[in-house]
Design brief:
Layout: E1 2-9, E2 12-21, H1 24-39, E3 44-55, H2 57-68, E4 72-74, H3 78-98
Parallel strand pairs: 2-3, 3-4
Antiparallel strand pairs: 1-2
Helix pairs in contact: 1-2, 2-3
Length: 99
C-alpha cells in the first residue's frame, strides 16, 4: 500500500509518501505526479521518501523519470538514500555524455 499526502503552497507541491513504492502503486503515483504537472506546468515538486519502506524496480524507474522532470527528493534510511544516490549518479553520467 502507498499513501500520498499532498501539500500545495502556490506552485510548490510536496508529496509525502508512506508505504511501498511498487506494484500497482507505481502507476498511482505516476498518474498523480503527471496530473499535477499537467495542471500546473511550472510546478516545483518535492517528493519525500522518508517513510517509504520498499521500492521495486518499477518504482525506481518512476523516480528516475521524476528526477528527469526536475523533481527534488528528500530521503531518510539506507535503502532510500542508496536508490536516490544511484539515480543521481545515473543522471550525472547522462548529462556528462551530452556535453
Amino acid at each position: 500500500m502507498l499513501r500520498v499526502i499532498t501539500e500545495r503552497q502556490g506552485r510548490r507541491y510536496r508529496l509525502d509518501l508512506h508505504g511501498t513504492l511498487g506494484g500497482q502503486w507505481v502507476s498511482v503515483l505516476e498518474h498523480h505526479w503527471r496530473s499535477i504537472m499537467d495542471g500546473t506546468p511550472s510546478a516545483k515538486l518535492t517528493v519525500v521518501l522518508s517513510n517509504v519502506d520498499f521500492i521495486d524496480p518499477h518504482g525506481e524507474a518512476l523516480l528516475h523519470r521524476m528526477a528527469d522532470g526536475n523533481v527534488e527528493f528528500v530521503v531518510a534510511g539506507c535503502m532510500n538514500r542508496y536508490v536516490i544516490e544511484r539515480l543521481r549518479s545515473d543522471l550525472r553520467a547522462t548529462e556528462g555524455g551530452r556535453q
